[in-house]
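Support request from a user on the community tier.

User writes: "When I paste my structure tokens into the form, the page sometimes reloads and wipes my input. The last time it worked, I copied everything first. Here is what I submitted, just in case something in the input itself triggers the reload:"
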């Protein structure tokens, strides 16, 4: 087993975390679709909670992956 440096390990873990956040967001938005048809008077479906939270998961994961691959100081200091 190859030993990774601390920066390589951090790079790998953050990339995986970003990918997992993107997948969680997509799953949450997909599971929100049947919620409309199952219970039309459901408060989370009315205010759009599955889609907003899924959108923010996807955005956070995308930002994490983007920051891993772009090493410019301007993109890191958001």
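"...and here is what came back when it finally went through:"
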């Amino acid at each position: 087993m190859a030993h990774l440096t601390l920066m390589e390990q951090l790079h790998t873990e953050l990339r995986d975390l970003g990918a997992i956040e993107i997948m969680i967001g997509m799953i949450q938005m997909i599971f929100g679709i049947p919620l409309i048809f199952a219970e039309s008077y459901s408060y989370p479906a009315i205010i759009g909670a599955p889609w907003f939270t899924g959108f923010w998961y996807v955005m956070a994961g995308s930002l994490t992956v983007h920051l891993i691959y772009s090493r410019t100081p301007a993109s890191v200091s958001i």
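Agent notes: The reload is a front-end session timeout and is unrelated to the input. The chain has a mean pLDDT of 83. The chain has four helices and no strands. Escalated to web team.
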